Amino acid sequence: MSRKYALEGIKVANFAWVGVGPFHARYLANQGATVVRVESHTRPDTIRLQTPFKDGIPGVNSGPWFREINNSVYSLSINLNKPTGRDIAWKLVMWADVMLESFTPGTTKRWELDYESVAKKRPDMVYVSTCQMGQTGPYASFAGFGYQSTAIAGFTSLCGWPDREPTPTQGAYTDFIAPRFGAVALMAALDHRRRTGEGQYIDQSQFETSCHFLATPITDFFTNGRVQERLGNRHPHAAPHSAYPCKGKDRWCAISVFTDEEWQAFARLMGQKWAVDEKFSTLVGRKENEDELDALIGAWSIDYTAEQVELMMQSECIAASAVMSTRDLMEDAHLKHQDFLRLVEHHELGFHRVRSSAFRMSKTDQIVFGGPTLGEHNEYVLKDLLKVSDDEIANALAEGGITTDADLPEITAAL
């Protein structure tokens, strides 16, 4: 059967919050799945409150991160601590093919929305739990965000200069690793369900998935007993290997030379007398004199733009790229050609750009629309998708099972 979108017809109940779980769901949404994001005004997602805010005005709907991570999904605002809120949650579960949650282990059990409870009524459910450490083990109750996971997985210890303290990564690095693994597992479970009719429980440890990106230092330790240390911009098997200053304000070009043949081509391109010095002719020699080498290359590169250095290096198949700023990316010709940064409309903030899917499928299209305001799609989800009666909606509003702007906590309302 031909379809416009690869995942057209797949329905997702996303109870996850902050970054990792919503990223899972957004991958599905961009390929055509109908995703309902469960939120609550009583406890807004912390990522809604992260800076920067549009025009510097704080609010639950004016931060960029939530809009980016949750583009192409629908927002339903309910309170799971109220019976009517849980009733609506169960209607959503019965509607969905996939359920996502990212709470500390044990949280969903208190609401009777854990996998065991859901599977009794929906044995065909693909249920995904994603948290810091997974559902079992001595660290299972460890709570935190991607910043903590980045540290405990070992990335922070490797970032920075050897004679200084660790430098945390810019952003919650592991939040961008775990969803790639989780989305693949989720798709495999959906395929299994399509073939057998059976559901599946996916228990994802964000810590464990992130460790895959440290395969080399982990393997080196098991093989040689060697603990990798901070190296700044350097690499044990390459020289030069750094970002070098270029013409203009805060302009740089990243260059990596791994082989002596690459170095010879690099030396020809620079045309500098010092570049033919015997002490730089081998990798061993370049590593022994790396401080001097970096200084000499920087003195040469500063006379060229980053783009000129990149073109020179790329002409000889030497790995090099201008260091791009956010402004550069917004104007990048390749991203424009790919229509990667899509112009979408936000209910309160108007038009802005979000990232689309990082791949294209030849037979199907992708969906990209603006991220929702808090509770924006309550009426659509309740009436059109879940077929909740007017009386049920009225009762839930009266009890607080459906939340509204009036339920925002004081500290949030005062932002």
Q: Give the CATH topology of the largest domain.
A: Rossmann fold
Distance between the termini: 50 Å
Largest sheet, in brief, is:
6 strands, parallel
Q: What CATH first level of the largest domain would be assigned? A: Alpha Beta
Structural class: alpha/beta
CATH superfamily of the largest domain: Crotonobetainyl-coa:carnitine coa-transferase, domain 1
Estimate nothing, just give the exact number of structural domains.
2
DSSP helix fraction: 25-40%
Strand order of the largest sheet: 3-2-1-4-5-6
Number of strands: 11
User: What sort of overall outline do the alpha carbons produce when their principal axes are compared?
Assistant: elongated
CATH second-level architecture of the largest domain: 3-Layer(aba) Sandwich
How much is the average pLDDT? 94
Q: Please count the helical segments.
A: 19
Share of residues in strands: 5-15%
Elements, N to C (H/E): EHEHEHEHHEHHHEHHEEHHHHEHHEEHHH
Radius of gyration: 25 Å
Low-confidence stretches at least 5 residues in length (pLDDT < 50)?
A: none
User: Could you state the oligomeric state of the chains shown?
Assistant: single chain
